């Protein structure tokens, strides 16, 4: 299990999301150092109701672990989409340059953590692809 860090991976973001809106949403939990929109994630696993789960994902770096912990333990909804959050080590997320079809989420790189989502949407699965536009 990955230890708590000040870095969160955020999944199931709305299609029209922008980095500034993510920053505005998460700053209520503490000072946000950096937000990086990673692109669309398509999950090969289906959700509990049989639908494919997809959406944009991003990383949020807080200035301290306490802020990241508060954000991770809260429920997040943007545009009627329940977001998922995972702790991650920065090296576990592929960079934009290296994130061709082989990219994966923190959960797909051996990560074993929990999700703050309260809906039936699971955390990112082992088979995920990022489509950067």
UniProtKB/TrEMBL annotation:
One GO MF term attached to the UniProt entry: RNA binding
RRM domain location: 6-90
Pfam families noted in UniProt: RRM_1 (PF00076)
Residue span of region Disordered: 95-121
Keyword list, A-Z: RNA-binding
Record has RNA-binding as a keyword: yes
Signal peptide range: none
Xref: InterPro entries: Nucleotide-bd_a/b_plait_sf, RBD_domain_sf, RRM_dom
SUPFAM superfamilies named among the record's database cross-references: RNA-binding domain, RBD (SSF54928)
Protein name (Swiss-Prot/TrEMBL): Msx2-interacting protein
Organism: Papilio machaon (Old World swallowtail butterfly)
